[in-house]
Amino acid sequence: NPERLAFAGFTPAAEDIDTDLLMQRHARTIRAAGGTIRTGSAVTALDRTPAGWRVGLGTETLDARIIVNAAGAWVDGVARLAGIAPLGFRPLRRSMAQIPPPGGHDVAAWPMLISAGETWYAKPQAGKLLVSPADTDPVEPHDAWADDMVLAEGLARYEEMVTEPVTRVETSWAGLRTVSPDGALVLGPDPADPGFVWCAGQGGQGFLSSPGAAMIIGQHMGADTGIDPALIDALHPGRFR
What we know:
The chain is an alpha+beta fold and about 240 residues long. It has helices at about 20-30, 75-80, 150-160, 205-220, 230-235; strands at about 45-50, 50-55, 60-65, 65-70, 90-100, 115, 120-125, 130, 135-140, 170-180, 185-190, 195-200. The strands form 3 sheets. Strands 5, 6, 7, 8, 9 and 10 form a 6-stranded antiparallel sheet that branches. A 3-stranded antiparallel sheet has the order 1-2-3, with no helix packed on it. The relative contact order is 0.15. The mean pLDDT is about 95.
C-alpha cells in the first residue's frame, strides 16, 4: 500500500529451501551409512553403561555408544533423562496462516516480504500466500497449534501494509523454535559426559543450519572438516557450564 509504505529494501541473493527435498537427502545419507530412522518411538529412559548408553523406548531397549540430543523443544527433557544438567532452552511458538492469493494474483514469483521489525512476514507457497505474525511466545514443549488471536493480530498488521484484504484463512498451524540462553546454536559434547552430544538451539534456522551443524558435530567426533576452531568453541555447550 503506497499510502503506508515509506521505503523498502530488496535483496536478490535470498533463496528458498526445498525442505522436503533436503529431508529426503539427509534421510538417504543416513540409510546409506547403515542408519535407521524410527518415528513414533518416544525415549522413556537413558541409562549410562560402561560401553555407552541404554536407551529405553517403551518396552524396548537399544544400546548406543553416543547420544546426539537433537530433540528440538525437548532437548532439556532428554538431558534430564540422561542425568545431564539442562542448559535452559526456551521453546517459542511460531504461527502461520495460509490465505488465498491476494486479488487472485499469480504469486509464484513474488519475493518473501518481511515488515520492519519483523512484526509479520509473508511468502508464496504452492500458489497460496503464507502469512505469519512472527510470534515468539514462550511455551512448554508440546505439539503446537496456532492461537487464533495471535494469528488475527498478525494478519491485521499485514493488512495495514497491503491493498488487498484477507478474505479468509484456508488453514493454520504452528511450530516450536527453540533458542538457547544466548540465542546461538549449541553443538558438541557436554563437559560432564563426552558421550552426550548437544545439537540444539536452532531457533528458526534448523533447515538452513543443518549441514553446518552436522559438520561441527562431526569435527567433535574426529572428522576433519576444516571449520575454524574459534567457531567450534563459540558454539560449544561448555560456555554455559
